[in-house]
Specification:
two-stranded antiparallel ribbon, about 80 residues, about 15% helix, 1 helix, elongated, alpha+beta
Length: about 80
């Protein structure tokens, strides 16, 4: 997604000068794929291992969207653009 600006002249009040109006360019029909990574304390995942795993997934294009705590652990929700 790109962001751009255009300059618009204020016709109603010429003394106000110009205003910067944001323009958002959106790619139509974006498709996402999702992944859930479950974490349960007591397994081999330590904070360092989780960070390493998330960094590896990030390098593969995954973005961490949410972490939902649950009894006995947490679920990590990730998304990336579908190919």
């Amino acid at each position: 997604m790109r962001f751009g600006y255009r300059t618009t002249h204020m016709m109603d009040n010429p003394a106000s000068g110009t205003a910067r109006v944001p323009i958002v360019y959106v790619k139509p029909n974006i498709k996402w794929e999702y992944r859930v990574m479950a974490h349960t304390p007591g397994n081999v995942d330590t904070p360092d291992n989780i960070e390493e795993t998330l960094n590896t997934l990030g390098a593969e294009g995954w973005e961490l969207v949410s972490v939902v705590p649950r009894e006995g652990g947490a679920d990590f929700y990730l998304k990336r653009l579908a190919e």
